[in-house]
């Protein structure tokens, strides 16, 4: 078996892989035929402002063709390495089986296993701090500033994440012979805690990536404004599309943080240890999967691997568009709870964090305490959006969505719910009107509505 390893952001030395390559080669069963000379260490530039994540994906394709040609191979990624490889899949294997001539579908991909360690699949809350502040977090970045364009991709709710997530929703990787797995942790290494930035000790995360942001089991809802108005003049929202991502193996590993020689999910592995660490054993089990039945059994084993004792969290990513597909950037978003759908009836302690994407402006990410949200009365939840402008020549109506008794179906622990909300752009009759030829005169007052 050929194995490629792909590191995360702002890495400048292949020693970041620690003893993981050696440990995998040492403890691999003979059936895998995984020797150290069959392991390739990826090196890519993520600390240059001009480099985009799509550039890295294209460069990976060139390197793959040079070293592996069309041989089947597996990949183990860390952190941003997962979006790099998933972007490569989206760029080179995006066609449907009956797609256009010359395009390739996922079932033609030479990648057999994608094992993602602490992946930033839905971004990282740290990214919004900016490259200068991140570079000063010496414990994480050792003074190396991450590249701006990759940082933009990693900011919660980015358009790049949105596009990649939508691609993945249309795929069926296991049926096409690709077996994806996510292994992450939620342990905070006190040696890496930054007292000026609480995100490095955020509950439900490994200090950099949230479990809900790593997990590739997510759901996407599309909602659209309807003509139906309530007594207050708010329009109702209806669900126009509800899609679940393809099932993906997911495991929360005990005593695993994002980085660090002591607890880092990858960097703490000692290649000379007499017995393999849990992460090494699990990776090797993932690599041995060869059928849909094997995959399903291992996914269940991963899900049942450890009882969770602490609070669990869920992530909600809201994006607001008009009916022309243009982003709406100025809006308020209120969660509603209880049979009266009252924002004042949300459970105490439900809220953990919120971020609005600075680049797109129309994406808002909420991080919620899942266990507290389950205490919502009768499982009733919803949300209200107050967009602006709400009056004038071109404006939007307030909208509301209500869902009775299905909170646990939509807000799932350690998962992300994507909401794409489409509002109607309402035009005043004064925007364009016709008048008789004998009624000439100044019409500037028509703009005063």
Task: Give a description of the structure.
The structure is a single chain. The protein has 449 residues and is of the alpha/beta class. It has a domain at 3-216 and 246-303: Alpha/Beta hydrolase fold, catalytic domain (Rossmann fold, 3-Layer(aba) Sandwich), CATH 3.40.50.1820. It contains 12 helices and 17 strands. The strands form 3 sheets. Strands 10-13-15-7-6-16-9-12-11 form a 9-stranded mixed beta sheet. Strands 2-1-3-4-5-8 form a 6-stranded parallel beta sheet, with helices on both faces. The chain has a two-stranded antiparallel sheet with strand order 14-17. Strand 6 (219-229) and strand 7 form a beta hairpin. The protein is globular and about 90 Å long. The protein starts with a strand and ends in a 22-residue tail after the last strand. This is Phospholipase. It comes from Shewanella amazonensis (strain ATCC BAA-1098 / SB2B). InterPro entries: AB_hydrolase_fold.
Which class of the domain at 3-216 and 246-303 in CATH terms?
Answer: Alpha Beta
Q: Could you say what the CATH architecture of the domain at 3-216 and 246-303 is?
A: 3-Layer(aba) Sandwich
End-to-end C-alpha gap: 70 Å
Largest sheet: 9 strands, mixed
Fourth-level CATH superfamily of the domain at 3-216 and 246-303: Alpha/Beta hydrolase fold, catalytic domain
Strand order of the largest sheet: 10-13-15-7-6-16-9-12-11
Radius of gyration: 24 Å
Residues in helices, as a percent range: 10-25%
Q: Could you state the oligomeric state of the chains shown?
A: single chain
Q: Note the beta-strand portion.
A: 15-25%
Whole-number mean pLDDT: 92
CATH topological fold name of the domain at 3-216 and 246-303: Rossmann fold
Class per helix and strand makeup: alpha/beta
Low-confidence stretches: none
Give the number of DSSP strands. 17
């Amino acid at each position: 078996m050929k194995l490629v390893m792909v590191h995360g952001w702002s890495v400048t030395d292949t020693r970041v892989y620690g003893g993981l390559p050696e440990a995998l080669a040492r403890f691999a069963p003979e059936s895998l035929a995984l020797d150290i000379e069959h392991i390739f260490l990826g090196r890519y530039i993520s600390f240059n402002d001009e480099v985009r994540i799509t550039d890295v994906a294209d460069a990976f394709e060139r390197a793959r063709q040079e070293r592996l040609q069309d041989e089947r191979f597996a990949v183990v990624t860390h952190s941003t390495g997962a979006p790099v490889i998933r972007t490569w899949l989206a760029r080179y294997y995006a066609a449907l089986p009956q797609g256009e001539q010359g395009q390739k579908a996922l079932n033609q991909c030479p990648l057999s296993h994608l094992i993602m360690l602490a992946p930033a699949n839905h971004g990282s809350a740290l990214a919004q701090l900016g490259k200068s502040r991140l570079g000063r977090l010496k414990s994480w970045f050792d003074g190396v500033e991450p590249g701006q364009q990759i940082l933009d991709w990693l900011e919660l709710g980015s358009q790049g994440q949105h596009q990649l997530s939508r691609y993945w929703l249309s795929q069926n990787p296991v049926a096409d012979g690709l077996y994806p797995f996510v292994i992450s942790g939620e342990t905070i290494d006190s040696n890496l805690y930054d007292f000026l930035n609480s995100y490095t000790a955020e509950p439900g995360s490994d200090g950099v990536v949230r479990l809900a942001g790593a997990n590739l089991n997510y759901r996407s809802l599309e909602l659209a404004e309807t003509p139906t108005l309530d007594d207050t003049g708010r329009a109702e929202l209806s669900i126009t599309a509800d899609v679940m991502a393809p099932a993906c193996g997911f495991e929360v590993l005990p005593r695993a943080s994002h980085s660090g020689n002591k607890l880092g999910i990858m960097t703490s592995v000692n290649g000379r240890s007499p017995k393999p660490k849990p992460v090494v054993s699990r990776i090797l089990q993932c690599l041995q999967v060869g059928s849909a039945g094997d995959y399903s059994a291992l996914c269940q084993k991963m899900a049942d691997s450890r009882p969770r004792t602490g609070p669990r969290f869920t992530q909600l990513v809201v994006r607001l568009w008009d009916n022309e597909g243009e982003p709406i950037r100025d809006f308020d978003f209120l969660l509603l709870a209880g049979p009266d759908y009252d924002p004042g009836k949300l459970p105490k302690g439900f809220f953990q964090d919120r971020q609005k994407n600075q680049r797109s402006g129309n994406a808002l990410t909420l991080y919620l305490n899942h266990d507290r949200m389950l205490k919502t009365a009768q499982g009733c939840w919803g949300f209200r959006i107050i967009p602006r402008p709400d009056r004038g020549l071109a404006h939007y109506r307030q909208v509301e969505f209500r869902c009775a008794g299905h909170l646990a179906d939509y807000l799932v622990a350690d998962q992300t719910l994507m909401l794409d909300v489409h509002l109607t752009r309402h035009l005043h009759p004064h925007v364009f009107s016709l008048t008789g030829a004998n009624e000439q005169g100044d019409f500037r007052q028509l703009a005063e509505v």
